[in-house]
UniProtKB/TrEMBL annotation:
<keyword id="KW-0804">Transcription</keyword>
<keyword id="KW-0963">Cytoplasm</keyword>
<feature type="domain" description="TACO1/YebC-like N-terminal">
    <location>
        <begin position="3"/>
        <end position="74"/>
    </location>
</feature>
<dbReference type="InterPro" id="IPR029072">
    <property type="entry name" value="YebC-like"/>
</dbReference>
<protein>
    <recommendedName>
        <fullName>Probable transcriptional regulatory protein GCM10011391_06720</fullName>
    </recommendedName>
</protein>
<comment type="similarity">
    <text>Belongs to the TACO1 family. YeeN subfamily.</text>
</comment>
<dbReference type="InterPro" id="IPR048300">
    <property type="entry name" value="TACO1_YebC-like_2nd/3rd_dom"/>
</dbReference>
<dbReference type="InterPro" id="IPR049083">
    <property type="entry name" value="TACO1_YebC_N"/>
</dbReference>
<feature type="domain" description="TACO1/YebC-like second and third">
    <location>
        <begin position="80"/>
        <end position="235"/>
    </location>
</feature>
<keyword id="KW-0805">Transcription regulation</keyword>
<dbReference type="GO" id="GO:0006355">
    <property type="term" value="P:regulation of DNA-templated transcription"/>
</dbReference>
<dbReference type="InterPro" id="IPR017856">
    <property type="entry name" value="Integrase-like_N"/>
</dbReference>
<dbReference type="InterPro" id="IPR002876">
    <property type="entry name" value="Transcrip_reg_TACO1-like"/>
</dbReference>
<dbReference type="InterPro" id="IPR026562">
    <property type="entry name" value="Transcrip_reg_TACO1_YeeN"/>
</dbReference>
<dbReference type="GO" id="GO:0003677">
    <property type="term" value="F:DNA binding"/>
</dbReference>
<dbReference type="Pfam" id="PF20772">
    <property type="entry name" value="TACO1_YebC_N"/>
</dbReference>
<dbReference type="GO" id="GO:0005829">
    <property type="term" value="C:cytosol"/>
</dbReference>
Length: 239
């Protein structure tokens, strides 16, 4: 599992280069989460997860507040949450989560991204069985033993705890996301290098240099689409 955080980190780094686009996507995601439940993260777990992830991407407070106020105002803009699955070069597996107010447009855009970059769309379930939904929380300034001890004291279960580069990464069941974070916060840790519920591949695949270049172009094209929220894959991107 040690390679997983590298893939998340690389995805985050690429997105950091396009902050205005990322902020706009988070604004939409926060609005949808706030509208689906109470616009208060303490009573709306979906909103809380989005806000915790937004914090690790340094989304400005005004963007968060604007999205929540829009939801409070009873705006009637509706979005559908849709998942697409497909294959990239050499059979690599890709999951694309979207938020859209125009299903036909989104389906067409995602399909075109695959077909123009060496991939093809699959049916529902064609690749998702190769992934596990996982809570991933990373902190700095702690070692594995310290993290294990504080989670044990809080009676919180984790799938794995690994030291990866400068951070300790906790992998846990999705329903343990808030419990893990709370255990850290009670231990005086409030800043996280990563805090999200993601889809992690059970096994990574390695592509040839040419296939990897085409694969990365496909992922970039998908992530640039306005309606795409998250892209997950099973390719080892290397160091």
């Amino acid at each position: 599992m040690g390679r997983k955080w590298n893939n998340i980190k690389d995805k985050k780094a690429s997105r950091d280069a396009n902050t205005s686009r990322i902020y706009a996507k988070f604004g939409r995601e926060i609005y949808v989460a706030a509208k689906q439940g109470e616009p208060d993260p303490e009573s709306n777990q979906a909103l809380k997860v989005v806000l915790e992830r937004a914090k690790t991407y340094s989304v400005p407070k005004n963007i968060i507040e604007r999205a929540i106020e829009k939801a409070k105002g009873g705006d009637d803009e509706n979005f559908d949450e849709l998942r697409y699955e497909g294959f990239g070069p050499s059979g690599s597996a890709i999951i694309v989560d979207t938020l859209t107010n125009n299903v036909n447009r989104t389906a067409s855009d995602v399909r075109a991204a695959f077909s123009k970059n060496g991939g093809n769309m699959g049916v529902n379930g064609s690749v998702s069985y190769m992934f596990d939904e996982t809570a991933v929380i990373g902190v700095e300034g702690k070692n594995v033993d310290e993290v294990l001890e504080l989670l044990m004291e809080a009676d919180v279960d984790a799938r794995d705890i690994l030291e990866e580069e400068d951070a300790v990464i906790v992998y846990a069941e999705p329903d343990q996301f808030h419990n893990v974070q709370q255990a850290f916060k009670e231990a005086g840790v409030s800043d996280f290098t990563v805090a999200e519920i993601t889809m992690l591949a059970q096994n990574d695949v390695t592509l040839s240099e040419d296939d990897l270049a085409q694969f990365e172009k496909l992922i970039d094209t998908l992530e640039e689409l306005e309606d795409v929220k998250q892209v997950y894959h099973n390719v080892d991107l290397g160091e």
